Structures are given as structure tokens and as C-alpha cells.
Amino acid sequence: MGYNNKSRSAYKSQNNNGYSNNSNGNEVAQLNAVTRHLVSLENDFVAAATWNPTLSFAKESVFAKHVINNSPYLTKLAVQNLKSFEVAFLQLATSGLTLDPAQKMAYLVPRMGRVFLDVSYIGLSRMATDEGLCEDIVVELVFEKDDFKSNGRRQSPEHSFDPFADKGALLLTTADNGDVGDRGNFRGVYVDYQMKDGRNLVYFLTKAELASARGASESWKKVEERDMSPWVRFPWAMVRKSAIKQTIHQIPGNRTRVATIIDYLNKDGGEGFRDVNATPVQAAEFEMSARHAAQRHDVPPKQTTTQPAPSGNVYDGEVVQEANATETTKQPQPTKTESSSIKSAPPVQNSVSDGKTEEMSDVPGVRQSAKRRITKLVKRVINTLAFETMIAEVKTAFEFNDSEIQYAVRSLEESRRNLLQSKLTDAVNKCDFTDVESFLNKLPEGEFKQKSNAFVHEVQTQTDEMRTLYDEAMKSKNFSALDAAIEKISFKPLKTVLSEMRSSAKAA
């Protein structure tokens, strides 16, 4: 087709991002609002990512802006529910994953009228290995035409197949429609965990188990909206993802972040059952509203969000049996007289109740007494450096509720990160890394130590390289190479020191 001026008219009503100019700039205003809110989350993001010194707010915010910039619908949802966008982005920091589309670990997507952080099975696998649960994970589908032989739970199965053959449709029950692929009927899936000591732990899931999990998921139950369910849109990815979610709790080790993100996927993401307890976002919003109302001597807000009654706690790919399904607890409804004296939201789940309303701190879901105790624990562990031990103890040894446990873990991890930051800054200023290396040697083996060693080594290498460039620049009086190298430095204290040295040399 030849070019003519008429073909340009199709683009007159759009800008480069696909937003219509006919809406009087409303979409652009929404985009700007979301972008400003994203920038305001930097401190919270850094605090949530204290355990991972290599996670970069700058990089992840660029990926997030790109997603929002190319999806007017997602932008609209973010404006309508900024809290969901905030929680999704901060969940990214907690998980340690990236929005980099090339790595296919996590995505910002619209779900249930909100912005949601969707984590792929690749992301879950990465979290499991990063958290030190295992060395490697293989999740593989098994079809009837595959050459498959199980060797039990302690040894990898023998499995050969054509990886390029068409898998066909996911047919878990007789009610499913679709064509059988080149590899024949689907039989099941297995997860092969390679542990750090070289052992293998293998778990198998049948079609029936997958069908039960899928059938109980909220996204699948809503027949009129089923086309938008991840089980329909990404069936084989959901099979792999569900396999990990159902088996990850069976391998030994501390799985705090993995468990947190799976809970987020199941409850807040609508992938699985939503129980009667309020989600973290809803609990925080209600509590803050109640506190603000009390400060204004106003009528406390009503908690309008209604959760469906429990029906077996079945998640996508994860079936959880309740200890006693017949025992249910109903929260008493306050009378008008009682409601006028409420000064804070009801304690969140698992909190200890002695019949008195405890004073709440400025942290949602955290009692004032618990916050004071957590502060003391953080001060104590700074001297002992027993961070891993204390993180494990706050989950079981104290009468903390779920929000308080999360706050305690976050505070301990932030304190550890700040200690590393302080010692590394001193090392850069002195050009002596002895103290920071001694600090790392005292830490127990684990994910934080491994990542910190790599990060310190990177900064030390940069410092040595910059010292060489600085000496050469002083001799040649040509600072162009040094200036270019300074701009590429990611560790701000090192960049500051070199910039000051460069300014002093230039002034002289």
C-alpha cells in the first residue's frame, strides 16, 4: 500500500504511549499520578529489600514505569487503587525478584480490579534457591508417550521426551475440551529438588490432584470470568507453578519469603481460596482509618469488605487441611455505645488477647508493646550479630501476631543491612576493607552473607580500579576517563568520595 497523508489521521488522536488525546489529558494525568507515587516508594522499597543488597530500586522502577506506560488499563486500576499498586511493587522488594521481562520472573498485571504482582514458576524457583532451600529445581510435565521411569522419592526419575513436541490442551477432567498433543495424554507433573548436600527430593502430582486444586481456585470457580483465569490463559505454566506451591513446604529449611509470596498469590491474587481473615492490605487500611477517626473524635469506619466463609482452604496447587473444620469463630459486632469508643482496629489474626484493647503503634497491625520489644531485640542483636537466630526466634519464641512477626523480621534485616552499609562506607573512606571483611566472616553462612560477600567484592574491585584511574589522571592532568568511570559507580558512598577527590584536584 502506498503512503499518503490520509494514513496519518489514524495517529492524530494518540500520543506515543497509546493514550487518547480526546480524553482532555486525563490518561496522561493518571500516568503522572502513578509515576509520582512510584517515586515516593523508594525508601519503603529499600527497607523491604534490606536482605538483598543487589536489588536496585532504580532498575525496578524503570521496568514498572515501562509496564504502566504501555497499559492504560493498568494505569487506571493503579489510580483507582494506589494501595494495591504499592503493595504489588513492595512485594517485589520482599521477594527479591525482578520485573525484567527477559528473566520472566514477575509481572505487574491487572487482577480482580487491582494491580497485582504475578510471580511465575521461574520466579518461585529462583526464590527457593536464593533462600537456600535447595541448589536447583526441575519441574517437568509427563505425558503418556514419554519414556518415563520413577526411581522413588530420593532419586531423579529417568525421563526422555521430545521437548519440541506440541503438548496440546490441558485436559485434567472429562469436562475439559481441547486436542491431545503430540506427546499423548497428560499424566502428571513432578518436582525434582536438588539439595545443597547433593541429595534429590522428588515429588509427584497426579492429574486428579491438579484438577482438585484448579477446581477450588476462585479464578476457576467464576465460570463467567473463567476466560481470564491464569488456568485458561497460561495452563502449563500454572501446572508447574502449582506443583512448586504444593511441594515447597515439604523440603527442610527456612522459607519465609517463599511462604509470604505464595500466601500473597493465593489470597490477594485470587489464584486460590480467600479465607475469613482480612488480607494485609485490607487490615492496614481499616486500622489506619479507625486510628484517624479516633484522632478526629469521629465515628470509626465500618469494615465493609466481606470475605467468604472457609470451604476447605484449597489453594491453586496447594491443598491445606484445617485442624478442625467444624470450629469457626465469629467476631462479635460492636453496639453503638461500644463503637463510639473504639480507638483502633481489632487485633489482627494470631494476636494474643487478654480481654483488653491494647494500644496500637504507628505500624499497621503492630501493638505498641510489641514494637518496643522488637526495638530492644534489634539493639541486642547488633552486638551479637546473631541475626539468623533472632529472625528464627521472633517467629516462634514470642507472642507476636503475624503483622508483628513481619515487622520484626523486616526490622532485623534492615538493621543488618544498615550495619553492612556503614562498615562498607567506612571501608571506602579509608580504602581499607579489613573491618567489613571481619564483619562478614562473623556472620553465619546463608543467603545474606553470600550476596553481601559478592557485593563487597564488587565495591572493593571498583575502589581499586578507581584508585588506579585517579592516580593516572593526577599524573596526566586528564580527568575524562575518571569522570566517565565515576558516573557508572552504583555504590553512592564510593561515588561521593571520588567526586569530592575529583573536585579537590580540579580546584588545586
UniProtKB/TrEMBL annotation:
Bias type Low complexity, positions: 15-25, 326-338
Tell me which stretches of the chain form a coiled coil. Answer: none
Q: Name one GO biological process term.
A: DNA metabolic process
- Where along the chain is composition biased (Polar residues)? 1-14, 339-354
The lineage's top-level taxon is Bacteria
Where do the record's region annotations for Disordered lie? 1-25, 289-369
GO MF entries: DNA binding
This protein is called: Recombinase RecT
What is the organism field in this record?
Klebsiella oxytoca
